[in-house]
Automatic annotation (TrEMBL):
SUPFAM superfamilies: SIS domain. This is Bifunctional glucose-6-phosphate/mannose-6-phosphate isomerase C-terminal domain-containing protein. Keywords: Isomerase. The keyword Zinc does not apply. Transmembrane segments: none annotated.
Amino acid sequence: MIPEFDDTRLDDPEVLASHDEQLRQLAGTGARIRIEAADADLAAGATDVKPRGVVVVGAEARLVRAVLEPVCPVPLVAWSLPGLPGWVGALDLVVVLASRQDDSSSALLATVAQAARRGCLLLVAAPAGSAVADAASSRTTLLVPTRTGDVMAAAVVVCSLLNRLGLAPEVNPEHAAEAADMVAEVSSPHRDLSSNPAKDLACGLGDADPLVWGGSVLAARAARRIAEALRLHSGRHALSADAGEMAQVMRHVRPRDPFADPFTDDVQRRPALVLLDDQTSDVAAGQTSELRSLAEAKSVRVCELEAGSGTEVDRYVTLLMQGLYGATYLGIGLGTDEGARP
């Protein structure tokens, strides 16, 4: 039997109490960013390092690449295969993101060990004493000891350190933490549906298959993460794609039948468009307009997430956290979210 969305569950104290751990995990994102930032520092003299190239491996490597790409003055690669590209050597920086104890896969360990053997400068975010930290141990290794297991928090802190090396734009972990806190405040389970944008998003997706689109590189990255969370929490199809592919999907949506009876007819779930447009370019604005027009022509519901102000990373955190809260409330409203995690 396909579960039906029940919006009364979103304000039911007993139901919300049964999902307290999930909601607390989301609310603690800002605190985890601060914890990781407090332990992170660069060794004396490290700020003078000027690598020939940068290779990023591990969890959230693509997020770090997306942050660095607009300003990084040297070649940059997000690498997912075991080992390293043949050209990587002692003149290059290898950034390793393994913020959890269970991130030490054999492929990642092989990559880290190879980087250490080649004499690469290593910037490693991993728990102290973990297999990755041990494999990366060398005189050219800068260890960022992680404690929370939050891969996004570690990525934010690593980006802030790379900014000090002149490889990334300005990233302030405290501002990113404040962005997460602001979303947590307005999305709190103690706020009822009438004043809670995350619960409102869940209601907008309660009878739909979400199509999630981001209007910039980082918004697109957030869209992919949100689509993953929507699939996890609801068990439904959720698609994230670029504007061209999303437009093609929208063009093939069947027109709504205004005479269909949802109680007697075999009515299929319709899509809903979730827009994450942080309005950073005229190109994104044009794509947003096109997708809105297609949605209107096909009678497709549109849900919007606002990026707010701040740096690109701050806006990414804001968009992602709104989507994760919405996905969690969607699972709660459907009753499909028992045991799921954001």
